[in-house]
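General statements about sequence and structure are easier to judge against a single worked case. Part of our work consisted of pairing the sequence of a single chain with a tokenised description of its backbone. The amino acid sequence and the backbone structure tokens for this protein are reproduced below.

***
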Amino acid sequence: MNSNFFNTLSPRCACNSSGIPHKPTKNHNQPVSFSERLTTILAGPPTHRESAQPKPNFIIGSHTYEDIYDLAAGIGAAISPLDSTVCLCTQNKGIFAAALLASLSYGFTLVLPYAYSEQALKEVFTRLNRDDIKTRTAIIDRPMKLPQGVSAIHPLPRPHTAIPTTPAILPDAEFCHFFTGGSTGKPKIWSKTPRNLFAEAFYLSQKFGISASDRIVACVPPFHLYGFTFAVLLPLVSSASVAADIYTYPEEIRTALADYNASVFIGAPMHYRVLRESAIASESLRLAFSSTGKLDKADGLRFQKHTGADLVEIYGSTETGVIASRCRAMGDRAFKPLDVVDWKIHHQGLYVRSPFIAPGIEKSADGFFSMGDRVRLCSEDDPKAGFELIGRADGIVKVGGKRADLEEIRQKIKQTPDVEDAVVIAHPTGRGRENTISALVQGDIDSIQLRKAISTLLEPYAIPRQIKTTSAIPMLPTGKYDRKAIEVLFFRSK
């Protein structure tokens, strides 16, 4: 592992492993330490550092970088010295960036809920109390019902007030707590350090050549780590600009890409799926990213054909950050781990060791973490060729005493004509490790036709006992399947 990168950060760029050329940056002879780079970020907006005119925007068409730093000063002034942890309840990317700067400068930690509904916030604060993380203040920008005992502040900028440039939080101290809802309804918490987050952003900015000339349109909310990293941190460390809104529907995505003259698009597989029949008039688009789930190959290649942009698939998780990437247009069949990530395969399981991994999660004695995914080497002769994903380790279940692979069943269902998408889930029967299988299928086909079609593709024990068809599979704002909603569909049928 090239851990030296995270102590000394050279601003020089080269081509990344997918062959996408980087944009040139200033060439300095001496590498910059992580602490120096972080201090430079806190020192002020690009206008102060480089006297650029006109003042560059953080939010395209509205808030400048100066505005963000003024807001960071306002947040710092509004937070009580007794507040060691503050909950960030907004989807405003500008407030996210300002709160992050204020957190580092003034020494309070941040909590990022996985959603802002009354129920989600109740679950989050229950978990915080259980872990003895005391939070009595939330930053909001719109009315919302907060749990009892939690007060709201509406941040106001303090123009021309500099924030402290020396970080008040140590590089390896936990300072951002990210939540994931999970399919069980019990939120999980992952805590990250400044080095976890900022070193990753510095690395990705360099790898993919993100610069001040880039204009980013994102479809993933910033409270999700993928959206946080690519739509808040990346522009912040590279002086790029980002569109204010979060886009879901094909027409609004097409309009945003064109209106903002976007050069970088941040999406999830569901966004590339809804765009597959769309002609996108955006000559400026050079790079797109996809994460949070498996991207359908046809959707990705169709997007690249329509836009001419290189589409990079990101593999990682909230707890690990980015682990690997691939670009099919560049001929990548497999995911190639970042050159700062150590990895190994044991009994088809993927294990990684990375400086981006949350410090509090369980790892082996030599620092490796199980990703929970089954993989295989793309080439037995060349391990550097990377790996292919073949399913979740917990996607192998017992049905009728035999092993069934949920991902394999899903792929067989998707081969059926008129099927657009499918989700396959397993329900424990209560008899040992036995399960029954259910499938929710999106497409113009009824369950009787589908069952007949897949009977020739699957072993009898692997055919889902319950099959429901729908016009649209429930999705979360992050682009992942809403597994709680999907399970409710089957539960209610009983």
Summary: Residues 65-78 form the longest helix (14 residues). The domain at 3-266+275-289+307-312 is CATH 3.40.50.12780 (Rossmann fold). DSSP finds 13 helices and 24 strands in the chain.
